[in-house]
Design goal:
By secondary structure, the protein is mainly alpha-helical. The protein is built from seven helices and two strands; from the N terminus they run H-H-H-H-H-E-E-H-H. It has a two-stranded antiparallel ribbon. The N terminus is likely disordered.
């Protein structure tokens, strides 16, 4: 669905401002869809009707931490999900009881638990990935291979840079005491 800009909404100060405006508008629309968690809800309905979105997020966060070579502890998971540690601990405990995650003792510090995805959790993530891929395929089915490649490259570059610039500042704000 294309959203035409009204003449009074169009930026007019510099050539290229219209492109920035269009990107901003598209990001707003995407944020609204992501806020509704369209893909996640489709995936859960098809693959894991008993789970909720935060549980799906938890599996993905553990996968990302492991993929980056980090240690998935309750603290690291809570930080990545921007949750308080007690909420993170409850989510992890729930997913352990469902057989999606397991706790292993850290070899460096036996007091710490490392959280790992079980075979069952890996299978679920694979199924979710298939649903996500199908949703993206549905949207881009009439795009050329070159267009898909260009979009993937530019979108990934945009997100990586956005995270690089804004996530450290966002985390710093979270750590600044109010008052």
């Amino acid at each position: 669905m294309s959203m035409d800009m009204e003449d009074d909404e169009r930026p007019d100060s510099h050539p290229g401002d219209e492109d920035l405006f269009r990107i901003g508008q598209a990001l707003t629309r995407m944020r609204l869809m992501m806020g509704r968690r369209v893909i996640g809800r489709i995936a859960i309905a098809r693959v894991a009707p008993g789970l909720d979105l935060s549980q799906l997020d938890l599996l993905e966060v553990v996968r990302r931490i492991e993929h980056a070579g980090g240690e998935a502890t309750v603290g690291a998971i809570a930080d990545a999900m921007r949750l308080d540690p007690s909420r993170g601990s409850r989510l992890v405990a729930d997913m352990v009881s469902r057989g999606m995650l397991r706790r292993d003792a850290s070899q460096e510090d036996g007091r710490r638990s490392l959280i790992q995805i079980t075979g069952h959790g890996q299978h679920l993530l694979s199924e979710i990935r298939v649903v996500k891929q199908a949703a993206i395929e549905n949207v881009t089915h009439d795009w050329s291979t070159a267009d898909r490649h260009a979009f993937a490259t530019l979108f990934e570059r945009f997100i990586n840079r956005f995270e690089e610039i804004h996530l450290p500042a966002d985390r710093q704000e979270d750590e600044t005491p109010a008052g």
